Predict the structure.
Amino acid sequence: MHTDSLTVTAWGDLLRGRNGVLALALMGGVALHAINVHIVTTVLPSVVQDIGGLDWYAWNTTLFVVASIVGAALSVWLLAVLGQRGACVTALAVFSVGSAGCALATSMPWMLAGRSVQGLGGGTLAALSYALIRVVFEPRLWPRAVALVSGMWGVATLCGPALGGLFAESGHWRWAFWTLLPVALLQGMLVIGQLRPMGERESSVDSTPRIPFMQIGLLATSVLAIAAGSLSAALIWQCFGIVAGLALGMSAVVCDRCATVRLLPVGATAIGTPLGAVYASVALLLIGTTTKIFVPYFLQKLQGLTPLAAGYLTAAMAAGWSMASLFSSGHGGVTAARLLRAGPMLCAASLLVLAILMPAVDDLPAGIRTLFCGLALAGLGAGVGICWPHLLTRVLTLAPPGEGGMASAAITTVQLYGMAMGAAVAGLVANAAGLGGQDGIAGTQSAAVWLFASFALAPVLAMLLARRIG
């Protein structure tokens, strides 16, 4: 089945009756995982001030991402073994245990352990949400459901920092973790009431698979190698970490091609196939958006914005993603194919505009410059949102027979890996271009130009791959 054959329905068909409750059950898991990501990012400075461990600050995110990749990869096996209800409840339980561990942490090693458990549960939740779209909804509802579930990341970016900021400013950072528990409980009650228990699984759920331990281990080690290299202040060791990480990532791909127990579906590791081009496009678009990790810093240092203003201007990217995704999901056929090319083009153009505007300290009035930067950031997010529902729907429709669950879960794995690799390379490019050096503002301007201009290549490549997707 191809997406061209899908008749896209109205939002009301997805949001009415039982479909609406099922949609809430699926998007709730992603929302819980995504909001947690942004809350924790905001409260981490307060955590370090209280329990110490500044040297391990970045590893809170690294270990969370690694564990999320592992959880996403295990979701296929969990769904086959425990069914819809059991898999989601288990993931929620693991996430809750990790959240409680973080709330009780008295040292950074304890916090890192809690974050790892959180990531394992959160990554599983996110992957299950995508995998269950093809199980609980009719194909005609897939584009709308994908847009709704993925749109939760944009919602999380808008409200997560605000919630985290409230806890941090009040001096009660532990409550940022405790408040996740009642939300997880409510989500668990919704899941138990709406999803099928074991023994009532849909026939479309894959038979019990084996776990691809080798590929999962290689991907996890790949991210850890990059993170280890970033600990060094020497550029040579940072480069070595990224090269080693890329080599391990490629080893995982080669291993998956030859393995009898696979992590990705047939054809997913070859960009010459439509399915492989879809996964490559997902990774490339996510790499392009990882420039956002430096945007608040650039806005404060170069544009003179306050931390709060810079944070919410950066959130324009998430708002653009969510709004464009919801709009784009209503189109199908030839229009959807055109949007697959237009989205990456808008991303590349927005990054090039940021490469020009962000370093322009005195060339434009401050208000005009800030407005244009906000529009460019919204354009970057909108470029991804325009094609996101159609990319993910194509994963569901292009999946080989019997590998639909594997293909769906791999969306989260590829998404997280692309974000991890993009963040590492972004740090390398920014540092090499002069960020943090003795040149001060000039070095920061140089870093902004090189970062945005070089990362525009990622969506350009995605645009070229759109022809292979069809």
In short: The CA atoms of residues 213 and 261 lie 9 Å apart. The chain has three domains: 1-208, 213-260, 266-470. The domain at 266-470 is CATH 1.20.1250.20 (Growth Hormone; Chain: A;).
